[in-house]
């Protein structure tokens, strides 16, 4: 059931658990995530970066695929189709294509410009029943061409953006997209506590979910994080499972080269990873 992410995240924040945003890249990803959410009776957010949208030939293709798959698989748990790190133009394209949620990443603009553009997009999104995420303090590392420095957000700026009526807020707390370097200092709970104090009941978003130790995830949830984004980890397990299949020579046995067989181990690996994360985040049976 395609819905905006507002209600599921408000419930998560109040119930002290988090809903996973898992980024999709193609049909296998989408199917694996939807089926796992349904099996675990968990709400879920499908994240689409601008790069992944382009790869799948555009946001319209993505929205059509997700809507049709949601219907044909008989998915009854709440599913939000969400633009990840959207540009101003990207947000409008997704609104038009039928997404149910958008993220406007104005973190690289001066705060006044971030405020002006976010205000406009909040109004448009809410008029059409979509939820909207905003970002303060760039997330480090690289997400599909979007590069951030990994700074910690200024709690006052977070309040300023939260007061514009966004539905959930990504605040940089030392988190980084992709695999964390060995010398990473961990999440800044000091920043998270300060942000949480400023924004009241606003669900907070933790980007860069890949590789954050479980105890830090649990602590972040206790401090107001209600949405956790995971992308790289699913890509890594998919690649590992596919490599194992090919290195074992299974693509050379019978019709093992058939893409439905070749991609099956990777598909199962994504399912297992999503299950592990939903259990860790506490969203199982919260649909
Ligand atoms: P990872 O790729 O580090 O899991 O980050 C995902 C993300 O934050 C998407 O916005």
In terms of topology, how is this protein built?
Layout: H1 6-15, E1 19-23, H2 27-39, E2 44-49, H3 50-55, H4 59-72, E3 79-84, H5 88-97, E4 101-104, H6 111-127, E5 131-136, E6 141-143, E7 146-148, H7 155-162, E8 168-171, H8 189-199, E9 204-206, H9 214-222, E10 225-230, H10 232-247, H11 259-262, H12 264-281
Parallel strand pairs: 1-2, 1-10, 2-3, 4-5, 5-8, 8-9, 9-10
Antiparallel strand pairs: 6-7
1,3-dihydroxyacetonephosphate binds next to strand 10 and helix 10.
Key structural traits:
single chain, 287 residues, alpha/beta, two-stranded antiparallel ribbon, binds 1,3-dihydroxyacetonephosphate
Task: Write structural notes for this entry.
With 287 residues, the protein is α/β, with parallel strands linked by helices. It is built from twelve helices and ten strands. It has helices at residues 6-15, 27-39, 50-55, 59-72, 88-97, 111-127, 155-162, 189-199, 214-222, 232-247, 259-262, 264-281; strands at 19-23, 44-49, 79-84, 101-104, 131-136, 141-143, 146-148, 168-171, 204-206, 225-230. The strands form two sheets. The chain has an eight-stranded parallel sheet with strand order 3-2-1-10-9-8-5-4. The protein has a two-stranded antiparallel sheet with strand order 6-7. Helix 2 (27-39) runs parallel beside helix 4 (59-72) and helix 7 runs parallel beside helix 8. It is globular and about 60 Å long. It binds 1,3-dihydroxyacetonephosphate. The site of 1,3-dihydroxyacetonephosphate has 16 residues, from strand 10 and helix 10.
């Amino acid at each position: 059931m395609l819905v905006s992410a507002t209600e599921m995240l408000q419930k998560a924040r109040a119930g002290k658990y988090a809903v996973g945003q898992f980024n999709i890249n193609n049909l296998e990803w989408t199917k694996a995530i939807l089926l796992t959410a349904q099996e675990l009776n968990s709400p879920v957010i499908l994240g689409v970066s601008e790069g992944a949208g382009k790869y799948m030939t555009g946001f319209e293709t993505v929205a059509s695929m997700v809507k049709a798959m949601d219907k044909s698989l008989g998915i009854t748990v709440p599913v939000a189709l969400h633009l990840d790190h959207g540009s101003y133009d990207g947000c409008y394209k997704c609104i038009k294509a039928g997404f149910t949620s958008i993220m406007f990443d104005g973190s690289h603009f001066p705060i006044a410009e971030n405020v002006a553009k976010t205000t406009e997009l909040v109004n448009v999104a809410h008029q059409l029943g979509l939820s909207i995420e905003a970002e303060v303090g760039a997330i480090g590392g690289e997400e599909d061409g979007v590069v951030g420095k990994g700074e910690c957000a200024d709690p006052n700026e977070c309040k300023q953006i939260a007061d514009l009526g966004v539905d959930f807020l990504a605040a940089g707390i030392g988190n980084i997209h992709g695999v964390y370097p060995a010398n990473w200092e961990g999440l800044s709970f000091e920043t998270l506590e300060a942000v949480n104090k400023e924004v009241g009941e606003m669900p907070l978003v933790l980007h860069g979910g890949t590789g954050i130790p479980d105890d830090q995830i649990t602590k972040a949830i206790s401090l107001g994080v209600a949405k956790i984004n995971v992308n790289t980890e699913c890509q890594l397990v998919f690649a590992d499972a596919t490599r194992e299949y090919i290195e074992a020579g299974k693509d050379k046995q019978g019709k093992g080269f058939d893409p439905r067989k070749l991609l099956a181990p990777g598909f199962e690996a994504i399912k297992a990873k999503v299950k592990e994360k939903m259990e860790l985040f506490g969203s199982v049976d919260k649909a």
